[in-house]
Specification:
alpha+beta; three-stranded antiparallel β-sheet; four-stranded antiparallel β-sheet
Length: 195
C-alpha cells in the first residue's frame, strides 16, 4: 500500500464533496472541480462526528486499491493526491509566480488579457483559460492563479516557454526562485598574435 494513499483526505467546512461512481465533484468558496478516476481504485466518503458528541471532526475521503497489481498500486497514491489537490484548490487556490528580466521586457494587463513584451517585434497577447486569472504586481513580476493545479502549472509553463532565460545574461521569463545556471561569455584575446 502507498504511504500517501493510506492517508485520508480531510474535507474542511464549507466544502461540498460528492462521489458518483468514479467521478468526484468538489465545490468550495473558490469554485468547482470534477474528475473521473480509474475504476481499479475505490473512493469512499467517511462522515465526521457531529458537534453534539464532543469535538466536531470534519468528514474525510478514503482511497483504497481494488487489487494488488502494480498498476493499481501506482494509481493509489496518485488518486489520493489528486483529490487532496482538488480540495485545496477550491478552498485556497494555487498560484505560480513568474519573473521577467531583460531590457524592455515587461508584462501589462489589458482587461483580462496578458500582454508581454519579450524582445520580439510585436507584443504577445495571452487570453486566460477558464478558471485562470493573471495578476501583474510590477512590470517584471506576474502571478498565474486558479483552482486547478494542473492548469495553473501548464499556463505558467507556456508563458515561460515564450522566452526561456538564456544562460549568458538570464534574459527571459523564469519561475520565482528558479536558479539559472550561467555561462561565461567569450573571453577577449589576452596577448598579441606571435609572428
Amino acid at each position: 500500500m502507498s504511504r500517501i494513499g493510506r492517508l485520508p483526505v480531510t474535507i474542511p467546512s464549507g466544502v461540498d464533496l460528492k462521489i458518483d461512481g468514479q467521478t468526484v465533484t468538489v465545490k468550495g468558496p473558490k469554485g468547482q472541480l470534477a474528475r473521473t478516476f480509474h475504476p481499479a481504485i475505490r473512493i469512499a466518503r467517511e462522515p465526521g462526528t457531529p458537534a453534539s458528541s464532543g469535538a466536531e471532526t470534519p468528514g474525510s475521503v478514503k482511497v483504497t486499491p481494488g487489487d494488488e497489481s502494480t498498476k493499481t498500486r501506482a494509481l493509489h497514491g496518485l488518486t489520493r493526491t489528486l483529490i487532496a489537490n482538488m480540495v485545496a484548490g477550491v478552498t485556497t487556490g494555487f498560484t505560480k509566480d513568474l519573473e521577467i528580466s531583460g531590457t524592455g521586457y515587461r508584462a501589462v494587463l489589458a482587461g483580462k488579457k496578458l500582454q508581454l513584451a519579450l524582445g520580439f517585434s510585436h507584443p504577445i497577447e495571452i487570453d486566460p483559460p477558464a478558471g485562470i486569472t493573471f495578476t501583474v504586481e510590477t512590470p517584471q513580476k506576474l502571478k498565474v492563479s486558479g483552482v486547478d493545479k494542473e492548469v495553473v502549472g501548464e499556463v505558467a509553463a507556456k508563458i515561460r516557454a515564450l522566452r526561456v532565460p538564456d544562460p549568458y545574461k538570464a534574459k527571459g521569463v523564469k519561475y520565482a526562485g528558479e536558479y539559472i545556471r550561467r555561462k561565461a561569455g567569450k573571453a577577449g584575446k589576452v596577448g598579441a598574435a606571435k609572428a
